[in-house]
């Protein structure tokens, strides 16, 4: 089996193993808290129903009204500012789910818009990431030259360190701003920035969703959009380095296999469907029981039998 196939199979096994480990850890960390919250909510529901004498049907209606009114706390979601924010989450595949189209035309346009916008966004962020990596390489070479280092070239490890540091600073700075504007804890803000820039976008924490921020805080809206676009470009630079490393490893394996195949072919001679290797063994391309004389091997007229018996015979030449 080729090394590329072994690598692919290993990656599949490792990925599913990683999924199983993640499921076990999340189960251990979250399931108990989930059950506790469910019990607390049920107790609160019972208290509210007894206090206000609300029927089950009325309570379900009230739940629906509360849930559907939540997005409107940020103001009008589909005015230009909110629509631009929504389009950004579609193009970047973040998909918070804070606002979704309710009309058939809006849903249809979202699908068409995503089919064109997502590839466009991926190419754009990849291109920006490449430029960031190139700029980082120039800076690294300049710093090494000023420090009179023997090797002034920027290695992959150097680039990874620089881009990782830049990504960390971006998340740290964004978290400080969101913690101030949204009233979140700093850890929750870091969590939000990470979930956003990795395009996971759970939607449990979404910026610009309170106090009519979309219409009353244009400077904050501008900051949030710039943070998302700039941060995604930095993350794309990091991903480019990792993908490049994996592609390089795969290419090296392919070249190594090709070189080994060429060496094996260089030590073999093909004769009418049969291959005589350098050590004298015969790999027959015919599986029949009949023998045919293919060629003369030397001056003694030794012939090769092409059947799978692999026998050699000598013919006496009568002058």
From TrEMBL:
GO terms for cellular component: plasma membrane. One of its GO terms (biological process) is stabilization of membrane potential. GO terms for molecular function: outward rectifier potassium channel activity; potassium ion leak channel activity. Keywords: Ion channel, Ion transport, Membrane, Potassium, Potassium channel, Potassium transport, Transmembrane, Transmembrane helix, Transport. SUPFAM superfamilies: Voltage-gated potassium channels. It holds the Pfam family Ion_trans_2. The chain crosses the membrane at residues 6-29, 104-125, 189-208, 220-247. Residues 75-132, 168-243 form the Potassium channel domain. The keyword Transmembrane helix applies. It is a multi-pass membrane protein. It comes from the Eukaryota. Gene3D superfamilies: 1.10.287.70. Belongs to the two pore domain potassium channel (TC 1.A.1.8) family. PANTHER family: ACID-SENSITIVE TWO PORE DOMAIN K+ CHANNEL DTASK-6 (PTHR11003:SF326), POTASSIUM CHANNEL, SUBFAMILY K (PTHR11003). This is Two pore potassium channel protein sup-9. It comes from Asbolus verrucosus.
């Amino acid at each position: 089996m080729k090394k590329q196939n072994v690598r692919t199979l290993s990656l599949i096994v490792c990925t599913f193993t990683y999924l199983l480990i993640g499921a076990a850890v999340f189960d251990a960390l979250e399931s108990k808290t989930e059950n506790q919250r469910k019990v607390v909510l049920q107790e609160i529901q019972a208290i509210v129903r007894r206090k206000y004498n609300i029927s089950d049907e009325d309570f379900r209606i009230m739940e629906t009204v509360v849930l559907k009114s939540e997005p409107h706390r940020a103001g009008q979601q589909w005015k230009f500012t909110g629509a631009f924010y929504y389009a950004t989450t579609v193009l970047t595949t973040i998909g918070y789910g804070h606002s979704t189209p309710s009309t058939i035309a809006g849903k249809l346009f979202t699908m068409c818009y995503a089919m064109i916008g997502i590839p466009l966004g991926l190419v754009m962020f990849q291109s920006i990431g490449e430029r960031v990596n190139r700029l980082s390489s120039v800076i690294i070479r300049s710093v090494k030259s000023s420090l009179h280092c023997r090797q002034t070239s920027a290695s992959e490890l150097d680039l990874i360190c620089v881009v990782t540091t830049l990504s960390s600073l971006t998340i740290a700075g964004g978290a400080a701003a969101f913690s101030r504007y949204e009233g979140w804890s700093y850890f929750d803000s870091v969590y939000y920035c990470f979930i956003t820039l990795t395009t996971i976008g759970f939607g449990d924490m979404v910026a610009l969703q309170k106090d009519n921020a979309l219409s009353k805080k244009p400077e904050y809206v501008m900051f949030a959009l710039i943070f998302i676009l700039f941060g995604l470009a930095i993350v794309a630079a990091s991903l480019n380095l990792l993908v490049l490393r994996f592609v390089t490893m795969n290419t090296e394996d392919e070249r190594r296999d090709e070189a080994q195949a060429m060496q094996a072919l260089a030590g073999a001679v093909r004769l009418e469907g049969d291959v005589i290797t350098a050590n004298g063994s015969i790999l027959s391309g015919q599986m029949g029981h009949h023998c045919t004389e293919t060629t003369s091997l030397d001056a003694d007229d030794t012939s090769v039998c092409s059947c799978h018996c692999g026998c050699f015979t000598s013919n006496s030449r009568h002058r």
